Recover the amino acids of this structure.
């Protein structure tokens, strides 16, 4: 057994001894029952201290390679050879893993272009504009958060989220959205999916009816189907969700009244009244997904459903469009008792959200950077929105499509007839280097067809060039 010690490398000497002895055992140069050289002797052979060799032997013993007894010294244990391990691995069948959703319930909710070709101008959805000014401000907030001297900021915390952050959110909601709530009516979450999941676990029972907009936000239905709810698609017309088609047994209605996703429609006042009446009479919850109402370019902010019926509404706000999706922070707002119930489930499942992210968000609010960011982004998006609407209006695309979403938000829908061939159009656009997305993956039973274009992350010149090229590509088809 020849052990070589290399003093010029950073690896500790005792670890070098350990690794080499393991190699001897695994290669069969040392067999089960063979004694190791006594530690004093090995130390003098290697020119190292005895305690170094003792440390190595202790490590080998704790890893199960050797045993030590008073009389027998240190000996190699019986170790299962590698081939036997590999053989066993082959014969042990894997533990079966059941599908999360049944085949019929699986939806392809996050459309990807079926090609390796990368568009040079990609109108992808769900992506805000993330520029250097924002990143710098966020970094500043993070650096302050991470220097927190408060020991409580590093320990376990409230499942609702940090009180200071919820206070900031409650102030923000009052200023920006006309929603007045106490911090104990706010629960911080990890975005739309986790929020839907909490609602399913905390407020619903398996098999309950959940009505969703169709076309709509696939996260709403996939999360609910995953929790075995009975998802009912409800059509959307030019006033919003068709309330007269809601099943009376609906326990939850998921809706995007301020900017219907993805059709872009604003829910009319009458429709809101009808929905409120339905929810009150049927004692149903409404999940009001207010994902991008900061970005309204015409008129003032639209009153939320929440401000009209706080008792039945779970109001969802996300920081994905407001800041960046990777931040993964959102909030659900509602009656104190319902929020307490959601917080309980949050506590069972994950105790609370990571503190540093929350502290950073709190700091971003407290410094005034959040309001500054929203105002700055609103101006940028307004310009880009005008550019896309204007270039679309002057293009031949208006012959084929109705342009939807002209007042609000970060995407536009070009709606075609039901026989419009989306796949063909997506392919033709891609051949011209333009990425656009079909409407159908956002539909359940609806046969509506069209193309969705996210523009927030694109510069005006790219938007204009992109639409011109799209118009040419679709005309040539
Ligand atoms: C309709 C809709 N609701 C909510 C969200 C926010 O989802 P999340 O908070 O999971 O990013 C998005 C994001 O793109 C959305 O499009």
């Amino acid at each position: 057994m020849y052990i070589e010690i290399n003093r010029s490398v950073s690896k500790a000497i005792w670890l070098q001894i350990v690794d080499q002895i393991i190699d001897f055992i695994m290669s069969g140069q040392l067999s089960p029952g063979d004694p190791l050289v006594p530690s004093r002797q090995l130390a003098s052979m290697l020119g190292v201290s005895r305690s170094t060799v003792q440390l190595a032997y202790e490590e080998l013993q704790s890893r199960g390679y050797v045993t030590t007894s008073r009389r027998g010294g240190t000996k190699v244990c019986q170790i299962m050879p590698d081939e036997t391990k590999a053989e066993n691995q082959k014969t042990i069948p894997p533990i079966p893993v059941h599908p999360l959703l049944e085949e019929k319930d699986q939806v392809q909710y996050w459309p990807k272009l079926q090609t390796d070709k990368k568009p040079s101008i990609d109108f992808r959805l769900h992506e805000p504009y993330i520029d250097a000014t924002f990143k710098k401000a966020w970094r500043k907030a993070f650096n302050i958060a991470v220097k927190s001297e408060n020991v409580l900021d590093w320990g376990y915390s409230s499942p609702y989220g940090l009180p200071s952050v919820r206070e900031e959110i409650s102030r923000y909601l009052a200023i920006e959205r006309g929603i007045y709530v106490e911090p104990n009516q706010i629960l911080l979450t990890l975005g739309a999916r986790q929020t839907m999941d909490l609602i399913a676990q905390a407020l619903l029972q398996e098999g309950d009816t959940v009505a969703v907009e169709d076309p709509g936000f696939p996260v709403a239905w996939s999360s609910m189907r995953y929790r075995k709810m009975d998802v009912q698609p409800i059509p959307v017309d030019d006033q919003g969700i068709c309330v007269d088609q809601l099943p009376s047994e609906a326990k939850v209605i998921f809706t995007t009244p301020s900017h219907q996703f993805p059709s872009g429609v604003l829910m009319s006042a009458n429709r809101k009244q009808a929905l409120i009446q339905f929810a009150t009479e049927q004692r149903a919850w409404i999940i009001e997904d207010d994902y991008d109402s900061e970005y309204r370019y015409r008129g003032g902010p639209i009153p939320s459903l929440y401000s009209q019926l706080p008792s039945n509404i779970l109001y969802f706000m996300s920081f994905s469009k407001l800041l960046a999706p990777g931040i993964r922070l959102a909030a659900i707002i509602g009656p104190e008792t319902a929020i307490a119930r959601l917080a309980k489930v949050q506590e069972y499942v994950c105790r609370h959200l990571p503190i540093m992210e929350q502290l950073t968000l709190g700091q971003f609010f407290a410094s005034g950077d959040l309001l500054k960011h929203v105002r700055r982004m609103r101006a940028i998006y307004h310009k880009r929105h005008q550019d896309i609407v204007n270039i679309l209006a002057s293009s031949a695309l208006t012959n084929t499509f109705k342009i939807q979403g002209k007042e609000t938000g970060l995407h536009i829908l070009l709606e075609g007839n039901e026989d419009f061939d989306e796949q063909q159009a997506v392919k033709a656009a891609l051949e011209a280097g333009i990425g656009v997305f079909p409407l159908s993956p956002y539909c359940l039973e609806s046969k509506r067809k069209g193309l969705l274009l996210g523009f927030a992350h694109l510069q005006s010149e790219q938007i204009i060039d992109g639409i011109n090229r799209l118009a040419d590509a679709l005309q040539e088809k």
